[in-house]
Amino acid sequence: MADMYPLYISLRDLMVRAAPTMKIGKEVQGEMTLNVPTNVMQSRDPAWFGTVRLSGNTVSYYLPPLAMRQGRDLTVPDALKKHAQSKTCFVFQDVAPERFAELEDLTQQAAQAFAA
Question: Of 2, 18, 20, 22, which sits most exposed with the smallest number of CB within 10 A?
Answer without folding.
Answer: 2
